Amino acid sequence: MPPRGGSSRGVRSIVGFAASVSLVMALAPPLGYFLLSHQAERRESAIAARLHAAFLTQVVLQSGSTWQRDIEGLIETNLAPGQLPERRTVLDNDGRVVSASGPLLQTPLITSRTALLSPEGPVGEVVVDRSIRPIVNVTLLIALASLSLAAATFAALVLFPLRALRSTIAAVRREESQIRARAQAEENLRVVFEHSEEGILMFDGLGRIVSSNPASQTLLGGGRALPLEGEPVQRWFQPVQGSCEVQAVGPDNRELLLEVTVTASKVGEQTQWVAIIRDVTERRQHERRLAEMATVDSLTGLPNRAMFRTLLQQAIDDARAKHRSFALMFLDLDRFKFINDTLGHDAGDQLLQQVAQRLNRAVRPDGVSTANGPAASDGVVFRLGGDEFTILLREVAEPEAACAVALRVLDAIALPVLIGSEQLSISTSIGIAIGPTEGVDADGLVKQADVAMYRAKTGCVAQELPTPGA
Description:
The protein has 470 residues and is an alpha+beta fold. The chain folds into three domains: 11-159, Beta-Lactamase (2-Layer Sandwich), CATH 3.30.450; 198-281, Beta-Lactamase (2-Layer Sandwich), CATH 3.30.450.20; 296-457, Reverse transcriptase/Diguanylate cyclase domain (Alpha-Beta Plaits, 2-Layer Sandwich). It has helices at residues 4-63, 67-70, 133-159, 162-195, 214-220, 281-295, 305-322, 336-343, 345-363, 399-414, 442-457; strands at residues 86-92, 97-101, 109-118, 121-131, 199-203, 209-212, 242-249, 255-267, 270-279, 325-333, 376-385, 388-396, 417-419, 422-424, 428-435. A five-stranded antiparallel β-sheet has the order 6-5-9-8-7. β5 (199-203) and β6 form a beta hairpin. α1 (4-63) packs antiparallel against α3 (133-159), α8 crosses α9 (345-363) and α9 (345-363) runs antiparallel to α10 (399-414).
């Protein structure tokens, strides 16, 4: 008869083992599901907040002090749709609600905040709240199912005789678990390989494709599922570890931009190469559209104030490095407010659009000869807001070249403008500053040009620049 103490220790071991296994089975599925889902939704919420902030920032940059009125209703557009209930709110710097969209949410919540910027700094923030109540509910259901399974497992592990339990566990570990795990893994890999939206290629050390899934055949086959086995990957990309972007042709000869990520792994003594191919065409186009919205004036198509500040600082740095000069012109339209108030904002917008076209033609005219004055190159026209424009001539041989451009601008603006049935005569005043100047930064140059413009409006003649031909 075995010692009583040994039997008790064996029973305690069986119970302890069964309790440990059951505890893992009860806790792992709900905790794993909740943590992974919570992490994914937090990431999606942060992306949504950034997208809405980037979109509304353009409105703030264009609207100035009236941005709170202009963004009403814009927050209702869902830029990053998700599965969870969502509420989006725009707050000003004092925490007051400017605009809100979406229902009141049940707790618990995930909250993401992103600052809303203007040229002077933050003016508020975009707050995206998402209710994770659905995730909590599913987690509770999974926990209930896991608890039932754990209880059944605990009972089975305890009730089986010790010898039968050991032999069963050993048999499962040696045979069934290995076979099922291997079969399940192979099936999972096959399903992922066949149905993945991303292209998957496997190739040997010489770059010859040994296996390809339907998505890769479509992406690299011009929209048709062409067999790729035996083809060299060098036709599309180099077989080296890392990431790259390549051009491809999709259906209807549409150009695609593909992101290719190549990785290598050891299988025994052999190296296996795998390439993951993603179509990033729409993502890159969306990124370019967002970048353009941040730097282009939506009414005139000219570079906006943000781009002006960037290019002006570049011009200062280049001029100092290359010991050359540039010119900055500041101008606005005379009596624009009167025209805007008399004929309406639509007429004012049309006038600004025509002025922008004339400024571009005057700064970069086709076939302009030096008979009109010294040459000035690389000119860019900007709209700062309202009827204020700036012209940056990033290389002028001498101040007279800037004056020659200014005269062309004055002549172009002076031509009659037809707005609907109304023919308008307008004029402008121009102030010019030559840079770089020792001790004067970008703000200082803008101020110099602005002061020169107001001197021109009052009939004063700027002293810094001689008149061409004088």
